[in-house]
Design a protein that fits this description.
It contains nine helices and 17 strands. It is of the alpha/beta class and 347 residues long. The strands form three sheets. It has a nine-stranded mixed sheet with strand order 6-17-16-11-12-13-14-9-10. Strands 2-1-3-4-5-15 form a six-stranded mixed sheet, sandwiched between helices. It is globular, with a radius of gyration of 19 Å.
């Protein structure tokens, strides 16, 4: 696994929009404010050509132009890259991204989540290059930064390799066009649930280790079976390490999540699994007696490995930024209702 170098103080942050750009409010104001904050900290900024574009359908621009921007920015002098935002159809840019060339180029950090799974996941499985499943650029316009944002930027600078769960999360955001910089509306208490098989684990401590791989399930199952899917090769290559799958869902309801887990299992993706980290689903309300945990456990419980649900991960913030492709050690403290992840990567 190739790990990018840490960004030094005064380094250059590049921005690209392979999914949505920051063309509408409150995202435009947030992105501009984030750039002001980084400039005051002494960093140089390199926006790509699509950062404020809105000419595409579900993405910032035409797929070919988005793919060209990806290649331009990865081969630029930027020290790290942060996606402007998520979106809907980033998969359509993939034919215009040369992953072989990216695998040959010096690695640099790329960070984004949601639709950006199309890059974070494929950088690992196609280019053997680590990336960060973490917040997009506009989130850094928040005043003040939540610790999750400090953690994410700390990964880019090499200052963070251990993360701890955050305790509270946001169910409903208060941000709007008139109040773009508001912090997370933290009203809900973290509720981690740990299973071994289909049985809950008691209040003790559970620890497991493996290579971190995953992202947004909506995107992952869309990639499954395409020419960009080399997941089985990846998990076989790293079978001695084993895989910790981190998964979260945006639009998928509980039945869609259960179908996605079935599809991943039948495709061979879940071989050599050491554990599962499951984020809070954005659309996880029970349907016909099926709840979000049961949707995962129907398949995951068969593996006989730890399954942790309710994790700070995904579309209901805050989210722990995870280095896709790195080795991770997960410790869940059932007594304290907390989780710690130590990631092993060399900058």
């Amino acid at each position: 696994m190739r790990y990018p170098k840490a960004m030094q103080k005064g380094g250059t942050i590049g921005f690209l929009a392979p999914s949505f750009g920051c063309a509408t409010e409150p995202y435009r104001s947030l992105f501009l404010n984030a750039q002001k904050k980084w400039s005051r900290q002494g960093y140089q900024l390199l926006p790509g050509p699509n950062c404020y574009a809105s000419a595409g359908v579900g993405i910032s621009n035409l797929p070919a132009r988005c793919g060209a921007e990806v290649m331009e920015m990865f081969l630029s002098d930027a020290d790290c890259l942060i996606s402007c935002g998520g979106g809907e159809l980033m998969c359509e840019i993939l034919p215009y991204v040369d992953f072989h060339r990216l695998a040959q180029a010096p690695p640099k950090w790329f960070m984004g989540y949601s639709d950006n799974t199309n890059l974070t996941y494929l950088l690992a499985t196609l280019a053997d290059t680590a990336s960060v499943y973490g917040p997009c650029a506009a989130s850094f316009g928040m005043e003040p930064w939540h610790p999750a944002l400090q953690d994410a930027f700390g990964i880019l600078t090499g200052e963070r390799k251990a993360l701890a769960s955050y305790g509270m999360w946001e169910k409903e955001s208060l941000k709007d066009e008139e109040h773009p910089f508001l912090p997370y509306n933290l009203t809900e208490k973290l509720e981690l649930r740990c299973y071994k098989g289909d049985r809950p684990v008691g209040p003790g401590t559970v620890t497991f280790q493996g290579r971190l791989l995953g992202g947004c399930m909506d995107c992952l199952v869309n990639l499954l079976g395409t020419r960009f899917d080399r997941t089985v090769e990846f998990v076989e290559k790293y079978k001695e390490d084993g895989i910790i799958w981190f998964l979260e869902a945006c639009d998928l309801n509980v039945f869609s999540i259960r179908r996605a887990m079935w599809q991943m299992e039948e495709a061979g993706w879940l071989r050599h699994v050491k554990g599962f980290l499951i984020g809070r689903p954005a659309n996880g309300e029970p349907v016909m007696g099926l709840d979000a945990d049961s949707a995962i456990l129907e398949i995951a419980a068969r593996k006989g490995v730890p399954v942790v649900t309710g994790v700070d991960l995904g579309h209901l913030p805050p989210a722990m930024p995870l280095v896709t492709g790195s080795m991770g050690t997960v410790t869940v403290d059932g007594q304290e209702n907390s989780m710690r992840i130590e990631m092993d990567y060399v900058c």
